[in-house]
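FORM 7B: Structural annotation worksheet

SECTION A. Query
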Amino acid sequence: MAAAAGVSATTVSLVLNDVESRISRETRDRVRSAAEAVGYAPSSLARGLRQRRSQTVGLISDQIATTPFAGRMLAGAQDVARAHEKLVFLVDTGGDRAVEQSAIRALAAQQVDATIYAAMWHQIVPVPDGLPADAVFLDCRPDAGGFRSVVPDDRAGGAAATRELVAAGHRRIAFIDTDEGPTRPIAADLRLEGYREVLREAGLRVDPALHVHGETSIRGGREAAEHLLQLPDAVRPTALFCFNDRMAVGAYAAAHARGLRIPHDLSIIGYDDQQFIAAEQEPPLTTIALPHYEMGKWAMEVALGIRAAEEQDATHQMTCPVIRRDSVGPPPAHVAKPNRRRTSHHTERSLSATPER
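SECTION B. Predicted structure
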């Protein structure tokens, strides 16, 4: 290329790297024309070595790369990286600690500019050995602190779901929860706290009979809903808040089996806004969305220093918005009217203070 332009290799380098020099405009134009003619493209690797930057980001995950449910997190991170001309090295460890350690060493050898450590669902995790001190945790929190992290605000999400049902006029609202036990997700307790908080705010009794457990599956949701729908008329719920969308689908099945119409006879709200599930029900399911895409963006922006740095051990809780569709309505007329007569003045004041949504 230097020969084609009739200049030295040093001149070519100065021109193509936009280095300040006394090279004339005519010579610069000639060098760039020669570069275009031979299809020259600058080496990002070479530029990165000069700048001591590799233009790459390492993203280590447990399972999210193979899980469509959380693929939006990757999309959010990738979009930010692409906009800033960064290449993402994604390693899906399958939850294998040995693979994880190997990945951390490999990314360090590649001299990645930043590291994101991600999980498939909201959880507290041990910090892997060798993880860079400036790594960002995505959809998980380090057990010992010391890192920036982003997780969904599941307590506020549980409150938003329950508030949606209270605002529709419901007074007997059940929570179909996941099973108890050592594998119970953090999100379950947080959503339960939000549910109870809103009931108390509305002056409604937190009835243990309306808090039931089941597998986080369609079958688990159906079995739990069947139990609730068999309760005596005086305590039977008019609305169900389900831990996730799959359990809500099971609740639909239980309602349909009893000849109940949604939302005319029973309102149902889910959680996750899971693709190919929530919007495909009949009627489409009102649900709380997990902000996967927004969390992925936030983590990449913080990792790259694009977003203002927060405290090193700060956890950012991302809002979980209500996705309104057609599965929530007022309670049936035959229960709504008596319920309203029994509602205390305190409850009426609480509900009238609830902002329109």
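SECTION C. Observations
The two ends are 64 Å apart (CA to CA). Confidence is low (pLDDT under 50) at residues 338-357.

SECTION D. Sign-off
Analyst initials: ____
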